[in-house]
Specification:
Length: 289
């Protein structure tokens, strides 16, 4: 689910701010934007976020501002190796020119904040700011989750309303098959100029066979059960996303079986309508944790 959270903690000579933004994603995908001085703390930041969130793309922006002067360190081995390589290049290819301090300063990692630039106070402040941002984010996502739950319930009710339509049409299939067979046999006999009495027992057997082959009562029982479980999963505490995903797969399976069994127009239309609602549910369930 989408959401936004911000946290800020200030110390005597620094302040830490954390911005969190989430958008829909089936899995948890964390993207951090932190300075090089915080690179070593990225795993702990991700771990803290993972303990609170389970789905969504999460964009994290961490910023530390200092009031006092920041000390920097020179990466001497890196610069020495770079200078040696340049002089060797100059010698081998007989190149003119002098080393420029601006070139050396632009080497990634040549000048870095001092190792004591991040202390325990800042780490504690960072954790507090991150928790603040997560709290604000979760509050916003909970509000969106309530609205999403209502939409999911409405779509489930639409599917539930289609089940009796299918059952009513399926109940009259046997009589419809009997009338259709009698009509078809009569047309064939009249075309050949023959007068043959139709065996009612044989006709009943054929009707029973066709009715059994197109019987969708079991599919409707399972569909009702899955819809009930879906409603229960929405109200259950904890994560429900994976369970809802599974139930939607089963609902789609029952709709497909129903469509393959029946040639009745009403049942076909109802089955397609169920599949359409299931697809809309599936899109929204990707946002549920």
């Amino acid at each position: 689910m989408t959401g936004y959270g911000k946290g800020m903690v200030a110390g005597e000579d620094f302040s830490v701010s954390v911005d969190l933004k989430t958008v829909n994603n089936r899995f948890l995908d964390i993207h951090l934007r932190v300075g090089s001085e915080l690179a070593a703390f990225e795993p702990s930041i991700k771990k803290r976020i993972t303990s609170r969130l389970s789905r969504g793309r999460v964009d994290v922006n961490v910023n530390i501002e200092r009031v006092s002067q920041i000390g920097y360190e020179i990466n001497r081995p890196l610069i020495a190796g770079y200078v040696t390589a340049l002089r060797q290049l100059q010698k081998e290819f007989d190149l003119a020119g002098e080393l420029d301090i601006n070139v050396l300063a632009r080497i990634p990692g040549a000048i870095q904040p001092g190792r004591n630039g991040i202390d325990d106070r800042m780490i504690t402040a960072l954790e507090q700011a991150l928790d603040q941002a997560l709290n604000e984010l979760e509050k916003m996502r909970e509000q969106e989750g309530e609205a999403l739950k209502q939409e999911l319930r409405e779509r489930v009710r639409k599917i539930e309303a289609l089940v009796p339509v299918i059952e009513a049409s399926a109940a009259g299939l046997a009589d419809a098959y009997r009338v259709r067979l009698q009509k078809r046999i009569g047309e064939l006999l009249n075309r050949g100029g023959q007068t043959i009495e139709i065996d009612p027992v044989r006709l009943a057997q054929e009707v029973a066979y066709l009715a059994d082959r197109s019987d969708v009562s079991e599919e409707m029982v399972r569909l009702r059960s899955h819809l009930s479980q879906f409603q229960e999963a929405l109200d259950a505490p904890g994560e429900a996303g994976k369970m809802l995903d599974f139930l939607l797969q089963e609902l789609n399976r029952e709709a497909n079986t129903t469509l393959s069994k029946s040639t009745d127009l009403v049942i076909k239309e109802a089955g397609l309508a169920i599949k359409a609602e299931v697809e809309k549910l599936r899109e929204q369930v990707q946002n549920v944790e």
